[in-house]
Amino acid sequence: GCELDLAFAWAKWWPQSLLLQGLREVGVECIQADEGSNNADIMLSLRAMKEVNKRAGLGQGGIAYVAFGTDKGFSHLLREIRTTKGWKSVYVTSFEDPPSILARSSSEVLYVRRPDRGKKKPVKSLPLKKSRRRRRRPKKEDQSKTLDRSELDTSKKDELEKLLISLIGEGSVNVATLGQRISAYQKNNGLQEWGSKVLLKEFGLTGSLNQVITREFSEKISAKATSFRTDTSTGKEIPTSFEYSVKRTEEEPDPIPVAPFPQVDGFNNSLGLALPREPSDTALVITQLPSAISS
């Protein structure tokens, strides 16, 4: 997938909101909407058209991704962007059956699949003391050793591969989580610029993080598509977001040592004519006897 040039989100943000913190970690500029109903929607629409018209006036084209629920009022924004020369509007939604007016007004519809929370196994309640102890335990993915900045040689691609593997850790992570870990790693190492683009630039690589992983590191890092957009002209689903995990190589078990076949007097341990010691060699001798006798 491509990386965004600009990313904004409008809402009446609560300062301690986990969503707010998560969006900021991946480089989304979160703007506080004014009090009153629909202010966030109006601010989004005005800024979107301002950016599209400014770029269209310079002869630039592009794609505007607009994410919201099922508010039909956004059909005007989607249509205005779609009819601007060189521009496409993509309606981003997790609703499987959104209003048809929104789908018709946009160039394409990007369906982001929600995780299936209904299939989670029930969690067994524990006594208070045991519950506290479990919450303090770090997850396996947090226990993976992250390479120190001073250990990295940015002239070698395999050094980036090692870093990404250490950031992914155990299990799997989505694009946003991996982006958060990259930014946190850069902050912890005192860098002034953050994000996957900055990291890739250090190693002299171009393209998006997903393109680099699938092109350069597919032998050790698995990329699984998790969300898709529908191409309106072909009807095909095109992957737009991925989940990453480290491929595990199973070591071949050591061969079981086999003791030599025992020697038996008068059978395979006698002077003069005797059968071979190993049964496999004896079988070979027996199969060759007819040809030896006939000759």
From TrEMBL:
Residues 139-152 have a biased composition (Basic and acidic residues). Residues 116-138 have a biased composition (Basic residues). Residues 113-152 are annotated as: Disordered. This is Uncharacterized protein.
